[in-house]
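User: Some background: our group keeps a shared notebook of sequences we're curious about, and every so often someone picks one and asks for a predicted structure to add to the entry. Today it's my turn. The entry only has the sequence so far, pasted here. Could you supply the structure so I can complete it?
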Amino acid sequence: MYNQQRSTANAQNRLNAKNFQEYLAQTGRANSGLPAQAKMQYNNNLNTNLTYLNAGEAGALADINRRTTDAQNAYNTGLAGANAQIEANYIQNLINERDKQAQRELQERQLQEQIRQFNENLALQRAQLYSKSSGSGGGVSSNSSRTSTSSKSNNTTSNTTKSTAGTKADSSVVAQLNKLAKTNNFDIGEIITSQGGLANVKLYTVNGIPYYKIGNDWIAYR
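Assistant: Of course. Here's the predicted structure to add to the notebook entry:
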């Protein structure tokens, strides 16, 4: 645009000079000092016009450069902000996943501890039952009395929760129980831990009898 305006200014200056020379020739003053003075004036006018055009072009280019710089800065700022947000979200997701994993590991440890305590309590009860059943002589009456008292105590306890004592499942139902364990068809029962607390177990019913699994064994729930 500015190059075209400069070309137009030059052409107009030449045309004005030519017209003025023709005018002087027609009036018989071509050899006077007027042509030289007119040429100087036209050149001054041309230089002034070209100066204005050059200044306008420089201002336009500066404005374009400024706008380009502003746009680039805005883009860079927006990009940096977007990247920062993406990174923050990524870190937060990692933290959340780590917390979930820690919670799962804690729950697993708690379950294993409950199973360990149950096995320990079950072994203790079996040992006590074996010790009682192996007594003889005068101790029979005393053992019988203690057994009766223990039975009453167990009957009282059964009103609030289930006893941990139970028999292992027959081999004829183990396969059915293992198959059921892969489904969600179970109930929830409670057993007494070695610490005297309660722990929940999954109950799977075969032939009307509920069983729960401890280690590799299936135990009848009573």
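Suggested note for the entry: The chain has four helices and four strands. The chain has two domains: 2-98, 135-220.
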